[in-house]
Amino acid sequence: MPRNQPEPHKIQAWSQINRKYLGQGVRVKRFRRPQRSQIRNRVLLAILMAKDVKLSQFAEELSISSRSVSAWVYEGRIPSKTNMDKACRLLGYPAHILFNEALIRESPILCQPSPSRFMKRTQSSSSKRNYILSGLCMVYDLSVTDVSHWISIHPGTFRKWLHYGHTPANSLQEKAARFFRIPQYILFAESDLPRG
Questions:
Q1: How far apart are the C-alpha atoms of 80 and 82, rounded to whole Å?
Q2: How many CA atoms, within 13 angstroms, populate the side-chain half-sphere of residue 20?
Q3: Fewest CB atoms less than 10 Å from the CB: which of 10, 27, 157, 165?
Q4: CB–CB of 136/46 below 8 Å?
Q5: Helix, strand, or coil here: 1?
């Protein structure tokens, strides 16, 4: 056998290696975790997260594509009147809360003073709570203690807002609105909505 020709067993070995590693292709996650700056409709995502409803599940319940719901959340698209009405009915919030065009257009990045970590404890089984505030803590991975410290209130007070739907005094609502950069009539809309 000539020297410049590869031996058959070496070719077979390389062939096996190629099949094992290269034949699988490049593995890319189907969905990437969005950066916080890519969330245009923070209120809608917060409510869905607090109610533990996946975007795909929400889309299925509305009989529309997952891509449409993703566009509402991440691109800030406003749905058609029919889909908006269905979404509002399903989640129990009016359109000016779920699809507030001014808020979606601004879509500010939350300026938190230091890193924080959302704690699952904030999701209690209380019968009445503020889904918007709870969901925003989830969206931004904020702990109750950290938010309380940053807006200068007692953690127990903030937990009452989250778990029991307590409506704070106007001055405290303003503090929370400044921190989350969401108008207080949206942050504390839960108190004005009928809950069954």
A1: 5
A2: 6
A3: 27
A4: yes
A5: coil
What's residue 116's pLDDT? 72
Distance of alpha carbon 135 from the chain centroid: 7
Mean pLDDT confidence for 3-9: 58
CB-CB neighbours of 99 under 10 Å: 21
Task: Give the CA radius of gyration of the chain.
Answer: 24
Residue with tokens 């609105």: 177
Query: pLDDT value at position 30?
Result: 42
- The tens digit of pLDDT for each residue in 139-178 reads 888 888 899 999 999 999 998 888 888 889 999 999 999 9
The length of the chain, given as a count of residues: 196
Report the pLDDT value the prediction gives residue 4, as an integer from 0 to 100.
60
Q: Comparing C-alpha atoms, which of 77, 72, 52, 64 is closest to residue 135?
A: 52
Burial 144-163 (b: 16+ CB within 10 A, else e): bebbbbbbebeeeebbbbbb
Which amino acid is residue 167, in one-letter code?
Answer: T
